[in-house]
Amino acid sequence: MSRESTHVDLTGDAVSRSAKERGVWLLLLTCAALSVFVTFGIIGTLLFDAIDFFTEVSPVAFFTGTDWSPAIKPYSFGVLPLVTNTLLVTVLSALIALPLGVASAIYLSEYASDRVRSVLKPGLEVLAGIPTVVYGYFGLVYITPALDVVLPVSTFNALSASIVVGIMIIPMVSSISEDAMSSVPDSLREAGYGLGATKFEVSTGVVVPAAASGIVSSFVLALSRAIGETMAVVVAAGQSPTMITASNVDTVLFNSIQTMTSAMIELGVSDLSGGTTAYKALFAIGLTLFSITFVMNLISTLVARRFQEEYQ
Amino acid sequence: MATDSGRDWFGSEKTTGYAKGRAFELGCLAATVFGIFMVFVLLLYVVVDAFALTTPEYGPWLDGDFLTSAHSRFPEKAGIYPALVGSVMMLIVIALSAFPIGVGTAIYLEEYASDNPIATLIEINIGNLAGVPSVVYGLLGLALFIRFVGLGTGTVVVGGFTVGLLILPIIIISAQEAIRSVPDSMRTASYGMGATRWQTVWRVVLPEALPGILTGTILALGRAIGETAPLIMIGAAATVFSPPSSFFDRFSAMPRQIYAWVSFPKYEFQYGVMAAGVVTLLTVLLLMNATAILIRNRYQRQ
Fold first, then answer.
1. Would you say residue A130 lies in a domain?
2. CB contact under 8 A, A108 and B143
3. Which of A8, A188, A193, B274 is deepest in the core (most CB within 10 A)?
């Protein structure tokens, strides 16, 4: 800013100019600070009611309880059914999205011509742009009846919800993995070809291992997205919290379940008044969900950063 | 793998290796197309259902009446009008609140604070905010805007502010990219003319970056219009029979209304009214994204 304090003033009143500059700077800084405030706001509001909740229901009862019944007496606030149901959807959708996403990334990065890429990439972006409630609708009215032809599925079931969540997170895996594969230097590929390797061998033996941290980062991010996914699961999988045990593990995916997010929606729809235990339970689940996804996103960022250092 | 081919340079291994590679390539192509194909088929189904192409006796569900009437328990009379207006009003609130704040943050990070530790911290924070589940933003809106600030439950402003916070990271990140793509020579030229930093940003950088910023913002608004979970948490109405009379009135939005219809198990609702609602929502989304792409293409050529 030294150029404003010169003796010859060519552009008007330097003092009012620098006051205006400082004002603008302060305003912009406030905007930027707001995003930090949002993070603290989220953590603060979640903690505030969650701590209140844990004075009424012990953390042990919450984290190890196997019965979730916040609205029907006898009340019970065991979060394990919700956690296991969330895990079920996450694992099933990962079984779809991770292999398909990596295979898409390999195809787009190593095989596809520019022409084919220019069609397929926007195509995958469309998958990410469709609202999640629409995916839930697809699961409920099209995929479940289709599954019903061959499998004993009920109207709301974990399987069709997992299928739509899986499709929804493919673009997340493919785009981040593809970025990682594209930034593998060509010299590595050429070294592979120089040794007589085929394109298949170079893709799977050189490019994929070299892009491993980017691929892992995309996996973690996609899993985190599946854990936090709400409307698709609410609409397609229904709202019946089911503790998964050895006796029902084979049938649970054909029946209605309730994930953490879905339980939050059920409590949210029921027009809760502030101060009730059920209302505070909302924030306790919210805090659990936020903590899990926050840690996973952080891991994903750290893994990705490590990868960037390798090739830049 | 190199040892494989070491045994037999020109023999049968070469051809099986070729077949294996070809099969792998086709497998990867199939994986890429799978999701796109599935969604394409599902979209086809929902459009066919919305216009009742296979069951003409019901007439098209998605017609002028659907767009101009409110929900009814009789499927043939049900419409989406109040929710459509609610969605548009919510978008206005988001555009007026999140857009200036998002662009302001991007300007600060790119033009004022690049490479200082505070900026790095804010950027990491923004990256993390982008990964917070949408339902958690709903809890923030509930606790902050309704209980702490005292705004009305389920009103348009609360919905707009809450979803606005949700898409703020997306607006910031895309605006940063647009600002970063303005060549430094333009900034230096402006400083050379004696312009201050803000004059440079306001008269040189922003006009140049505006198409990119607008494209990113419209895409972010497209994300906002499909958000359902935060609206449920802040108590947006499942169904309203008239559009909100002001920004401080209780409202419903299109995805919220679609979710409300899930609890109507009749065939006419599931495959008629809901299909029409889904196609309406997707059409609005498509129009917004098309606008964004048009802006991008028009200004990219210059």
1. yes
2. no
3. B274
- Which residues from chain B sit within 8 angstroms of residue A38, using beta carbons? 129, 140, 165, 168
Chain B residues within 8 A of A126 when measuring between CB atoms: 36, 39
- The answer on A290 and A224 residing in a single domain is yes
Across the interface, of A131, A138, A195, the residue whose CB is closest to B281 is A131
Nearest CB among A36, A126, A138 relative to B122 is that of A36
How many Cα atoms within 13 Å fall on the side-chain side of residue B134? 26
Cβ neighbours of B8 in A, within 8 Å: none
Residues of B in contact with A224 (CB under 8 A): 131
Show residues of chain B in contact with A221, CB under 8 Å.
131
* Cis peptide leading into residue B133 (ω within 30°): no
Which is nearest to A306 in space by CA: A220, A202, A190, A224? A220
Q: How many domains does chain A have?
A: 2
- Taking an 8 Å cut-off on Cβ atoms, the answer to whether B143 and A230 are in contact is no
**Shortest CA gap B229–chain A (Å):** 6
Q: Do A103 and B28 touch (CB under 8 A)?
A: yes
Which residues in A lie closer than 8 A to residue B109 (C-beta atoms)? Answer: 32
Contact B135 A129 (CB under 8 A): no
- The C-alpha torsion from B36 through B42 and B43 to B45, rounded to 10°, is 150
How many other β-carbons are positioned within 10 Å of the β-carbon of residue A30? 14
A118 found inside a domain:
yes
Within a domain: A264: yes
Contact A38 B258 (CB under 8 A): no
| Sign of torsion over alpha carbons A122, A124, A129, A133 | positive
> Are A52 and A280 contacting, i.e. CB atoms less than 8 angstroms apart?
yes
Residues A38 and A150 in one domain: no
Here the CATH number for the domain that contains residue A262 is 1.10.3720.10
Q: Which residue of A has its CA nearest to B197?
A: A21
Which residues, in sequence order, are CB contacts of A25 under 8 Å at separation 6+? B112, B198
Question: What interface predicted TM-score (ipTM) does this complex get?
Answer: 0.89
Q: A51: domain range?
A: 2-56
Q: Are residues A222 and A155 in the same domain?
A: yes
Q: What residue ranges do the domains of chain B occupy? A: 2-50, 68-300
pLDDT digits (tens, 9 = 90+) for A72-104: 778 889 999 999 999 999 999 999 999 999 999
Tens digits of residue pLDDT in A117-133 = 999 998 998 998 999 99
The topology under which CATH files domain B68-300 is MetI-like fold (1.10.3720)
Q: How far apart are CA B247 and CA B174, in angstroms?
A: 28
Inter-chain residue contact A293 with B132, CB threshold 8 Å: yes
Task: Tell me: do A126 and A198 sit in the same domain.
Answer: yes
Per-residue pLDDT band for B16 (boundaries 50, 70, 90) equals low
β-pairing verdict for A76-77 and A68-69? antiparallel
* Residue B284 confidence class, pLDDT cut points 50, 70, 90: very high
